[in-house]
Design brief:
The protein has 134 residues and is α/β, with parallel strands linked by helices. It contains 5 helices and 5 strands; from the N terminus they run E-H-E-H-E-H-E-H-E-H. Strands 2-1-3-4-5 form a 5-stranded parallel sheet. InterPro entries: CheY-like_superfamily, Sig_transdc_resp-reg_receiver, ST_Response_Regulator.
Amino acid sequence: MKSYNNIYLIDDFETVNFLHTMLLKRLGFQSVFSFTNPEEGLKVLLENRNSLKSSLILLDINMPEMNGFEFLDCLLKEGITQSLDVIIVSSSISEKDKRLALEYPEYVRHFLNKPLESNQLKTLLELNENSKLI
């Protein structure tokens, strides 16, 4: 299973973050940080930019303050491109959203519907880190 130092959950629904946190902890991940406000999550990432190597972000797309693509744009603008993987976790089934996700090849590894299931996430994390399912 791919080892991540930190996992960041960015989703405006606290319940989804709670469920995903519990799922990740059952899979053995201890450093899981969740944010219901993407701007707060972005602030923490920027403050810790030097320690983001081998980090994973589970990112929702449709959020009121800042959508997931705006979040990714901010990461690019700030020059955060080191070893940071993003899995888009969304209720969106829009092909347009999937196409937009492809515009961020430096980050986005997968595009999944939420909520995640334990086996689904475990399988993803066992895949080669360079593989993409979008």
